[in-house]
Design brief:
single chain; mainly alpha; about 85% helix; elongated
C-alpha cells in the first residue's frame, strides 16, 4: 500500500467518523427535551460538562468501531 493510499484511507475514515459524530449529536439534540446549547450559552457549567462527556463517549465508541 502506497503512502497516498494510506493518507486517502485515513482521511476517509476520519470523514466517516466526523459524519457519524455529527448525526449522533443532532439525534441527541432532537431526543432530549433540554436545550443544552442554550443552557451552555447562559453559563450552565454542568450542562457543558455533560455535553462534553457525551461527545467524548461518542468519539470513544466511534473510534473503537472504526479500528476493529
Amino acid at each position: 500500500m502506497s503512502l497516498l493510499e494510506t493518507i486517502g484511507e485515513t482521511v476517509g475514515w476520519a470523514f466517516l467518523g466526523f459524519i457519524i459524530l455529527y448525526i449522533a449529536i443532532r439525534l441527541f439534540d432532537l431526543i432530549t427535551p433540554t436545550d443544552y446549547r442554550g443552557e451552555i450559552r447562559q453559563g450552565n457549567i454542568a450542562a457543558g460538562i455533560f455535553v462534553a462527556a457525551f461527545i467524548m463517549s461518542l468519539t470513544a465508541i466511534i473510534v473503537s468501531v472504526i479500528v476493529t
